[in-house]
Amino acid sequence: MKNRSDGFKDDSQRLRSRELYMKFAKCLTVSAIFLVDPFTMLRVCADEPRSNTASATDLIYEAFFKRKSLAGQIYDLEELEPPFQTSSKFPTRGDSYQRAVTALDRFLSTSVGGVGEDPVRRAVLQRDLWAVFCTLAGSVEPRRSVFNDQVFVTGLEDVGDTDQSYRTERRVLQKKLIKVMRQIALTAAEVQSLPDNVSDAIRSSAFPRQFNPDMPTRGFLPSDLFEANSGWVAYRDVSRGDGLVAPSHTRFTNGRSFFQIFLKLPGGQQATLGFLKNFGGRSQEGVKFPAGTSALLLQRMVVIGSDGLPKITPITEKIKIRHFPDGENAQAFSWILHRKELFANRRGGLHEVKEEEKSLFSFETNETKVDYLEMTGRPDVPNTLDTCVKCHNDIAGSGYHTIRSLFGPRYATPDIQPTTAKESGENALKWLKKTYSWGLLQGMWE
Ligand code: HEC
Q1: In the list 72, 272, 408, 438, which could disulfide-bond 233, CB 3.0-4.6 Å?
Q2: Ligand 1 atom with minimal separation from the 252 CA
């Protein structure tokens, strides 16, 4: 069934949403009075029992994506990753574990758990449950090898969950997660039918299409990103054996998302190709990015199709841009997928990250995967947009020196070549299929 443009299937859903909104407004008022952090909203009414009309899908989100910190604050933020880590107590112990089991059982006892037929909602729910599954199954770490008594990072490896406690609870949850994921899996045709939400966001005219020097902190979404010969060139380091374009991001997401990196010099296609062609081999002495150069990182959603194989979807989960107005110093912009906006087809579901926004579980603020909610004291994380400088300028200089993908370990210049979405997509899925968590998933999917 096709959803109406407001994203609700029927009047009862619309009514429930109004009720929830009223509750939310009440919470907001209270939290404004006892104002805490912008990112941990103190919602005194959060423990109210859910109305009986809550769908099984709602209960799943409540069980896995809302949490209480040790200080009793509710953490409930639109994020791509679940708000816990592999070794967190939250998913495998006590009431929170029971709630998760009950929510999954409730979903499995209904036909489609309230998610309906809509491929977009099914895709989003499946990617979210896959994220939970993978987090329970361990993490990906740099693979270190020793040659001549020296330690080198030679790739990535999924270290699995063999050393993790509460294995029985992990497996109980994982088996149920897989059953739900299988039930809502998309056919290949449905995957193709998913929206290209970046193009939708650009068409919505909600964001400027180019950088405006008079408003340098205003993010822009380039309308020509996917146009042939537009000057946006996707590239990769061909000296990497695993073919990954964005190894740090792939590691963080266990390969559940697909990444592309683009560079655009103001001189257009030939200028960008020329820069990349000469990059590794030439002396970098005196080389500068021309003013107006941009680098862009695109993160796409991957789902598991009804044939049990991973498929890259047209849905973008995140875009990050670093634009160099003077060729040296970057302005940073970031957009992240907001589920409800996507369902309602507003601005392609892309939310521009604002100056004061924080997150406790994103790549930017928590690459080392700490569970701040199981620590005492207030987490001291920077604003998301303040992290960009830290990571990109920590090695050397300015301008192209801060483009992380142009340099390998120890700041070496690797062999950079233009690539295509097809080539890097195939490499990304090949890498994913060799991970521990994919093997575990396959075993349970059959
Ligand atoms: C924890 C470190 C870290 C933080 C924080 C970080 N990045 Fe990056 N970024 C990287 C790495 C490493 C790469 C290279 C790709 C990879 O290995 O995944 C990268 C790649 C990129 C690229 C592609 C071009 C390039 O430099 O390779 C863009 C654009 C980018 N990041 C933008 C941002 C923006 C905008 C922010 C802030 C919102 C940000 N990054 C925060 C580590 C970081």
Answers
A1: 272
A2: 18
Q: Model confidence at 99, in pLDDT bands (50, 70, 90)? A: very high
Q: Report the chain's mean pLDDT, rounded to a whole number.
A: 86
Angle at 386 between CA 381 and CA 388, to 5 degrees: 110
In this structure, which residue's CA is closest to atom 10 in ligand 1?
404
- Ligand 1 near 342 CB (within 6 A): no
**Which of 388, 389, 390 to mutate to test ligand 1, by most ligand atoms within 8 A of the CB atom?**
388
- In tens, the pLDDT along 325-380 reads 999 999 999 999 999 999 999 999 999 999 999 999 999 999 999 999 999 887 88
Please identify, by atom number, the ligand 1 atom nearest to the C-alpha of residue 405. Answer: 27
Centre of ligand 1 to C-alpha 132, Å, is: 24
What's the confidence (pLDDT) of residue 44? 31
Q: How far is the CA of 392 from the centre of ligand 1 (A)?
A: 7
For tokens 């995957």, the residue is 191
Radius of gyration (Cα) for the chain, nearest Å?
Answer: 22
**Per-residue tokens: 409:** 């370990």
Long-range contacts at 308-313 (CB < 8 A, ≥ 24 apart)? 308/182, 308/185, 308/442, 308/445, 308/446, 310/429, 310/432, 310/433, 310/438, 311/186, 311/188, 311/191, 312/258, 312/425, 312/428, 312/429, 313/123, 313/191, 313/194
381-414 as b/e: b if 16+ CB within 10 A: bebbbebbeeebeeeeebbbbbbbbbbbeeeeeb
* Structure letter (DSSP) for residue 381: -
158 CA to centre of ligand 1 in angstroms = 21
State which ligand 1 atom lies nearest to the alpha carbon of 296. Answer: 29
Kindly report the protein residue whose alpha carbon is nearest to atom 2 of ligand 1.
Answer: 391
* pLDDT above 90 for 225: yes
Q: Is the pLDDT of residue 144 over 70?
A: yes
User: Does residue 30 sit in helix, strand or coil?
Assistant: helix
Q: Determine the pLDDT at residue 283.
A: 63
Q: Which of 36, 37, 39 shows the shortest CA–CA distance to 78?
A: 39
The reply to whether ligand 1 has any atom less than 6 angstroms from the CB of 320 is yes
Task: Say if ligand 1 is within 6 A of residue 247 CB.
Answer: yes
- Per-residue pLDDT tens over the stretch 171-207: 999 999 999 999 999 999 999 999 999 999 999 989 9
Pick the residue whose CA is nearest to atom 41 on ligand 1.
388
Ligand 1 pocket member 246 (CB < 6 A): yes
Alpha-carbon distance of 342 to 207, in angstroms, equals 16
